[in-house]
Write a structure and sequence with these properties.
280 residues, alpha+beta, 2 domains, three-stranded antiparallel β-sheet, three-stranded mixed β-sheet, 7 helices, 6 strands, 28% helix, 18% strand, globular
């Protein structure tokens, strides 16, 4: 790979707001042991960090959010593990990490006092988002179709072969080519009738709703009435499902001037993905 191509890849990662690694910070990975237990690993985002991690305490809130306190230091191992019994939980649960020596820590300088704050922090703790190179998350910026696929594939921990079996005509050489093809292989995205994916086009609320409704299995069986939703459109059932299962809510700011065909920003997209990960 020549030096020009290397710089192209670096610039693309910066533009999309996702870095390969973050300069510092702890993230977690959660895996199911069986139906009653999960294993949670805490590790540094930067694997070269010499400090260790120790879990100090943990407690469950409302059956859904597991708070895990930790401290760091040279005397600890570079990873920490917790095997948690779900007997009092309502899975799937989410994890909230707490640095006991810096309880007010925020990874991004522009998320204090915003609606999506807790959801962005959840995705940050889970290693799904890392923000921009300037220390911001840019929650009001629009998110492209390619960027959304990156978040979703990371959130679902999807793997696969990056083979262009569908024949997309506009992704070769794109920074997100492999991610797009993995998402396509898993049936999350199909592209347009002209065989294009349009990866750099901002994604709409309708498109996000459609993909999330296919990507996750929700057991909630509500059947609400929402006056601002369009009916009879290709996306109508998917958007309604987002409200029925709680991925969207009529109290969200997005509902004030609701338009399924409008582009969605990074903060609201993070909210939807975060909720989807721990919705029953």
């Amino acid at each position: 790979m020549n030096i020009i191509k290397v710089w192209v890849y670096i610039i693309c990662f910066i533009l999309m707001g996702t870095q390969i690694v973050s300069a510092s910070g702890i993230m977690y990975n959660m895996e199911n042991i069986d139906d009653s237990k999960v294993s949670i690993e805490l590790k540094w985002r930067d694997e070269q960090t010499n400090k260790g991690i120790s879990i100090t305490h943990f407690y469950l809130v409302n059956g859904k959010t597991l708070h895990i306190g930790y401290e760091t230091g040279e005397k600890f191992s570079n990873k920490a593990y917790l095997e948690y019994n779900l007997v009092n939980a309502i899975p799937p649960i989410k994890v909230k990490l707490i640095d006991i020596n810096n309880r007010d820590f925020l990874p991004f300088s522009d998320i204090e006092d915003i609606e999506a704050k807790d959801y962005i922090l959840h995705l940050y703790d889970a290693g799904i988002v890392n923000g921009r190179g300037d220390g911001t998350f840019a929650p009001e910026s629009l998110i492209t179709r390619a960027e959304f696929m990156v978040l979703l594939v990371k959130a679902l921990k999807l793997e696969g072969k990056a083979v262009n079996n569908v024949g997309f005509t506009d992704i070769e050489g794109h920074w997100a080519r492999d991610i797009i093809l993995i998402a396509s292989e898993h049936g999350l995205i199909s592209g347009y009738e002209d065989k294009t994916m349009r990866p750099d086009r901002p994604i709409t609320l309708a498109e996000v709703s459609s993909v999330i409704s296919r990507a996750f299995s929700f057991k909630t069986n509500r059947n609400g009435i929402y006056s601002k939703l369009n009916t009879g459109k290709w996306y109508s059932s998917s958007v309604k499902k987002m409200f029925d299962v709680g991925i969207l809510d009529i109290n969200d700011s997005i509902y004030k001037e609701f338009n399924e065909e409008s582009f969605i920003n990074r903060g609201k997209c993070a909210t939807m993905i975060s909720r989807a990960l721990y919705t029953y």
